[in-house]
Specification:
The complex is a heterodimer of chains A (about 300) and B (about 350).
Chain A: E1 4-14, E2 19-29, E3 33-37, H1 44-51, E4 59-64, E5 67-68, H2 73-79, E6 80-83, H3 95-103, H4 112-118, H5 134-145, E7 152-156, H6 164-179, E8 183-188, H7 191-197, E9 200-205, E10 208-213, H8 215-222, E11 227-231, H9 234-240, E12 247-249, E13 252-256, H10 262-272, E14 279-283, H11 287-295, E15 298-300, E16 303-305
Parallel strand pairs in A: 3-8, 3-9, 6-7, 7-8
Antiparallel strand pairs in A: 1-2, 1-4, 4-5, 9-10, 11-13, 11-14, 12-13, 15-16
Chain B: H1 2-17, H2 20-41, E1 49-55, H3 60-71, E2 75-80, H4 86-93, E3 97-101, H5 105-111, E4 118-121, H6 128-147, H7 167-197, H8 200-204, H9 211-241, H10 249-272, H11 276-293, H12 305-311, H13 315-329, H14 332-356
Parallel strand pairs in B: 1-2, 1-3
Antiparallel strand pairs in B: 3-4
Helix pairs in contact in B: 1-9, 2-7, 2-9, 7-9, 7-10, 7-11, 7-13, 9-10, 10-13, 10-14, 13-14
Classes of the chains: A alpha/beta (about 300), B alpha/beta (about 350).
């Protein structure tokens, strides 16, 4: 059985009129990448900032590495590493100096040069932070999150605002951390990021976890099975498949596959009625579909909007 | 603890010295201030005034008398030709101080009979009192010498130099006090709002560093910035105005304690200013009244009474007074009193700062 490094029960964070976190339960296992996925304002950052000892919880029990959050904040802070949202370091210090600066805050310090190679920044060692691109800055941030050789690393939206290439490079660094046995808590609003990196994930909306499990479990549980799409089928296909509860999206018609035989029935019916269409394809639900279904938020280019 | 404070200090120091603009203005601002205000106000002290002298006697004795005037060091003597019409000359040259030494001046002095020199002045000019004082002093000196029956009339310069302070004597310690306040308050408010808004505080909040350590590192760094500025002020004063003041231990203690005080005040202001754009204005709102009402530029005695009363609650007033006691008047007990007042204020503000400020969100 895997050890839980973080246990959260009934976590609530309330501001005057607003409930930012509304009764979250969570167990994070040692060595996994756990993602919290959700639209802006869902409460992801508030949740992790409570775990990072930056914010105080209104209610709830939190244990991190065996320490109660309310009494063991100091000890917890020594053993966790954090890449905050919209991370920034000192503009006119070099990569190496910035990492050394934050290392100096801890008694237990990782080797600065090892951290630089961990995030693959040897060639930028003596470059001022302000002269780095967004992706490189985030890699410095990840190195800084590792200065105290932490067991748990929190990465709050580590790839927001990065181009796809830079995002993939950051993913590689994150995988490297897991390979070194760290537990990683990742918040993101990129579907692909959560799907590709996570061992397990939670979808958060309006302060609550509305789905929890491995990416495939979440899809299986909430994705609603496979669908058959008849592209260009139009009104004729709708009539032909009337009994099977078709749904129309423009000229495309989709039908949920409940049994294996359904696919044969569909094609048979279309042929029988002489329906013309461009193609028939089978679609598996993705995390994106699950997300849409659960949160009602639209997605553009893999990024949740509105 | 010590290591974290050291990291904060060296981090800020590196940032500062790599920003040529910051270095330039830290030095240029006090230098500009002292040059500009020195130029504007030096006419109102007794540093150097123009005195036109028409010597109708033109004797050895009157020459010595004029040398005596010159030797006071506060008068620039300009000779007016004996055949010149005085009234026309005054009008033509906008003369405000003109001394006429009558014919027979030397004769009268040597024989001991009464003789009158005439000082014509524009009494509205700021310099009139000082020039009158200087001429009176020299004249009295000459009289003493003569009636004392010594063999030759000599005017010794050292004994009659005015005890009035020149403006720059008054202004230089005030500038130091002012710069300690400006540097500490402006820099701290600037650093705090910048680091809060760009997320550095969010990161620091996740580390074991506490408020007191951050504050200590900041204060140490402020001391260096203040030292740079004080050095610029002293060097400018020496080079441009021949100031011969020095920083004794008491003055240095005052500068150190005042730096702590104003660092804490800056920290407290920055708790209430969240916006980087507003930071400078907010810092200005606190520092500007103090700049003008704490006796940095003008002696407090010259202000209306209600403003003098207000000045009593401004920390900079005590910093300025203490620095002047130490640097100008050589008044050690006055300096100590002011130092203690500033120390108490500093401790109070630092306690408040550690309690309320920092980067914790709640």
């Amino acid at each position: 059985m895997e050890d839980n490094v973080i246990t959260v029960r009934g976590l609530v964070k309330r501001y005057q009129d607003l409930i930012a976190v509304d009764g979250v339960d969570l167990d994070v296992r040692s060595g996994e990448i756990f993602s919290i996925l959700g639209p802006n304002g869902a409460g992801k950052t508030t949740t992790v900032e409570i775990l990072e000892c930056i914010r105080k919880a209104t209610e709830g029990e939190v244990t991190i590495l065996g320490h109660d959050l309310r009494t063991g904040g100091k000890e917890i802070r020594r053993q966790i590493g954090v890449l905050p949202q919209e991370f920034n370091a000192f503009d006119l210090l070099t990569v190496r100096e910035n990492i050394a600066f934050f290392a100096g805050m801890y008694d237990r310090q990782a080797d600065v040069d090892e951290l630089i190679s961990l995030v693959d920044l040897e060639h930028k060692r003596d470059t001022y932070f302000k002269n780095l691109s967004g992706g490189l800055k985030q890699r410095v941030g990840i190195a800084i999150a590792m200065v105290n050789d932490p067991r748990i690393v929190f990465l709050d939206e580590p790839t927001t605002g990065l181009d796809p290439g830079a995002r993939r490079e950051v993913w590689e660094v994150i995988r490297g951390l897991r390979a070194k046995g760290r537990t990683i808590i990742l918040t993101t609003h990129y579907m692909e990021e959560a799907e590709v990196l996570s061992d397990r994930l939670a979808i958060m909306n309006q302060g609550k976890f509305i789905a929890l499990g491995s990416p495939s479990e979440v899809v299986a549980q909430h994705g609603g099975g496979r669908t058959c799409v008849i592209r260009g089928g139009g009104e004729a296909a709708m009539r032909s498949l009337h009994d099977m509860g078709p749904e129309r999206d423009g000229d495309d018609v989709s039908v949920r596959i409940v049994h294996k035989e359904d696919l044969v029935s569909i094609v048979t019916a279309l042929n029988r009625d002489g329906v013309e269409y461009e193609e028939v394809m089978l679609k598996r639900p993705t995390l994106e579909d699950v997300f849409l279904k659960l949160t009602g938020k639209s997605i553009e280019g893999g990024e949740i909007s509105g | 603890m010590a290591n974290r404070v050291k990291m904060v200090f060296s981090g800020l120091a590196k940032q500062f010295f790599r920003s040529p603009g910051s270095v330039f203005w830290t030095i240029a601002f006090p230098v500009m201030l002292i040059l500009i205000f020195g130029a504007i106000f030096s006419g109102t002290g007794v540093s150097k005034y123009d005195l036109y002298v028409q010597d109708l006697d033109d004797s050895l004795v009157s020459g010595i008398y004029i040398d005596g005037l010159e030797a006071t060091g506060v008068l620039n003597i300009h000779e007016v030709p004996v055949n010149e019409d005085v009234d026309a000359f005054i009008e033509r040259n906008s003369v405000v101080n003109l001394l006429i030494i009558p014919a027979g001046f030397g004769q009268a002095l040597t024989s001991g009979s009464e003789i009158e020199v005439t000082l014509r002045q524009d009494s509205t000019a700021g310099s009139s009192r000082a020039v009158l004082a200087a001429v009176n002093a020299v004249t009295q000196q000459a009289n003493n010498e003569v009636t004392g029956g010594r063999e030759v009339i000599t005017v010794r310069s050292g004994s009659i130099v005015s005890e009035d302070l020149s403006f720059i004597d008054f202004f230089l310690p005030g500038t130091i006090g002012l710069m300690v306040m400006m540097i500490a308050v402006q820099s701290i408010v600037g650093y705090q709002t910048r680091f809060r808004n760009n997320g550095i505080f969010r990161k620091l909040a996740t580390t074991p560093m506490n408020n007191a350590e951050w504050l200590s590192g900041m204060m140490l760094w402020m001391l260096v910035m203040v030292a740079i500025s004080v050095a610029a002020i002293m060097v400018t004063g020496m080079l441009m105005y021949d100031v011969r003041m020095s920083l004794d231990l008491m003055a240095i203690a005052m500068i150190v304690v005042a730096t702590g005080l104003f660092t804490a005040i800056g920290m407290i202001i920055s708790q209430f200013v969240k916006d980087e754009e507003v930071a400078g204005t907010a810092a200005g709102a606190i520092t500007f009244p103090m700049m003008f009402l704490s006796g940095s530029f003008f002696p407090l005695e010259s202000m209306p009474e209600y403003l003098q009363a207000f000045a009593q609650v401004l920390p900079l007033t005590y910093v300025n007074n203490g620095l002047r006691d130490a640097m100008v008047y050589g008044n050690a007990s006055g300096a100590m009193d002011n130092l203690l007042i500033v120390l108490v204020m500093a401790v109070a503000f630092i306690v408040v700062t550690v309690a309320i400020s920092g980067w914790k969100k709640e």
